[in-house]
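Protein in question filed below.

…
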Amino acid sequence: MAKKKAKEQPDTLASIERTLWAAADKLRANMDAAEYKHVVLGLIFLKYISDSFDEFRSQLTARFQDPEEDLYWEDATDEDITGELEDRDHYLAANIFWVPAEARWGTIQAKAREADIGRTIDNAMVAIEKENPRLKGILNREYGRERMKQVRLGELIDLIATIGFNDTEHRAKDVLGHVYEYFLGQFASAEGKKGGQFYTPKSIVSLIVEMLEPYKGRVYDPAMGSGGFFVSSEKFIESHGGKLGDISIYGQESNPTTWRLAAMNMAIRGMDFNFGKEPADSFHNDQHPDLKADYVMANPPFNISDWGGDAMEADKRWQYGTPPVGNANFAWVQHMLHHLAPNGRAGIVLANGSMSSNTNNEGAIRKALVEADLVECMVALPGQLFTNTQIPACIWFLARSKPRRGEVLFIDARSKGEMASRVLKTFSDEDIAAIAEVYHQWRNGDDDYADVAGFAKSTALGEIRSNEHVLTPGRYVGAADAEDDQASFAEKMAALTGQLKEQFERSLTMENNIKEKLAELGYEL
């Protein structure tokens, strides 16, 4: 029977996901994806903490009544126990959020069909924040807005009520985390370009975490979105038998709603975090000015031109050159290096142009980084990994203290990955393991490491200098279609131009055929 139950769980989760997504989709008539994301995830969060509260309440009741338990109360009446169950200290001591009576799910659901259900939820969120200071300012409190259909909201509450988070703590967090990740991915797809601002594809996050192995120390993401890197760090530590308390989490996000979403993402997992006093721009209002992190993991927005660089030319973070005003890629890199501890390491997702561009001082900054021996590994990624952009991307791995001085490992992973849908690709667990393994073998100096033609090569700085400090892996590992090769680019452009010419000719032929048919019927265009 146990095997059957374990086998059925994925189907149960899939059913929950489909049902909730269909319910969330109903709200789209009145708001866009960016808004209803917070509506749905806020309610899921409310259901989770209420279920966790009820589950612990039941456990307390049993302990009060069981002579074998430490809290046994021999002469207690039902009234005594009911009163004791309202002592918030019991819950706080067990790291359980205290949920006031007016905010408990049973109370909310009982009023789901009332005309002012939105206001009831807003009041519940205010009460929860008041009782739990670490949630202050992170819960959505806009359910009572006039634009939100209260009938739809009631339907959504009834559907969310079907999710049970009150089994065991492990299963509750497992189900919640699974549903949360599913929704973040779905919302990213629904929002298109904007969705990528808060969501980094899971397989890219997993790859960086597997390569950096953030077991212990301070972990920082200055463009954290919904906090995906932190969640994967938790999973990595747990899967390798470590303790979650061994890492300290620091992040920053400028978008207020996404900042709250990240905080909620941490809170549902019981993770301590420091996201600064407020949502803020990492360049102009650094919330962690004195932080020196052991690990930096980030997927900052690609190629942003309006980052305010013209007001920051003399900034102390630009140790390797002033980044161009029209592109923030190397501003991000230097901001993260500034916050890296003496033995710290970083994994940063950037647009491919960062590996070869010589525009507006970018080549000079890249050269300075290479010559300072800060670049440890470069990974070229396949296309179609991101929901929000088709810009080719790569991962820079930087280290303050490299074990292999004077060398850079180049990995060309463009042939890896599999299509998860018609438009999106993802890395399999095997892909992630293959890339991470060759990196660790190289970094640790294992005898098993060997260059793999077309995939990985350890390259001395002298060879990189001879290539004018271009860091495109295809140039070093032996790939025939190196992305920055000018001859290859010319060939591709010639082929594409030929195809376009052919399409134009076909279009003209079809247009003429239509005109002829219309003329036969006595019509002229």
Confidence is low (pLDDT under 50) at residues 1-10, 193-198, 480-488. Residues 4 and 15 are 17 Å apart (CA to CA). DSSP finds 17 helices and ten strands in the chain. The domain at 10-190 is CATH 1.20.1260.30 (Ferritin).
